[in-house]
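Example (one chain per record):
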Amino acid sequence: MSRVGKKPISVPSGVKLAVANGNVTVEGPKGKLQFHMSNRVSADFKNNVLTIARHSDEKPDKALHGTTRSIISNMIKGVTDGYSKELAIEGVGFKAAIQGKTLTMALGFTHPVVFTIPEGLAVEAPKPTQLVIKGIDKVMVGEFAATVRRVYQAEPYKGKGIRYLGEVVRRKAGKTVTK
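Predicted structure:
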């Protein structure tokens, strides 16, 4: 049996969880999320404990067992605590600004890079060189952070670019001139 999938999920107080027709709905203080489970797995909710079971020991069922449990567990954590990713921008003249639902970044290109902030996410810029992306959906937060980072990833020679806060970029030595 799957080691992750067989772990029961305890639902904290203040979170409403409903399982009906393969749909799992989680509602908490920060918002509401919904997930449609595969018909290869089933969920049982009793006494504030959710257990996930699979119908057979075939390889696709085993894979979905742990994945489904992790997704539902992340949904519960998202509606109670939320998720956040922090990005650091390094480089001379590199900065970010937020105006309404628009993220505008100056990254040394001939034009500013503009992103529309997706519904359900909040983006803050405590400093012009720092971004904080917050939301209740772990996948949306991570995907938007990766999309922003992909515009100008930190390069190994000068370290300029966008990186996750705390990420270490391995530096390379530049070309040397021999005499």
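Caption: Residues 9-80 form a domain with the Outer Surface Protein A; domain 3 fold (CATH 3.90.930.12).
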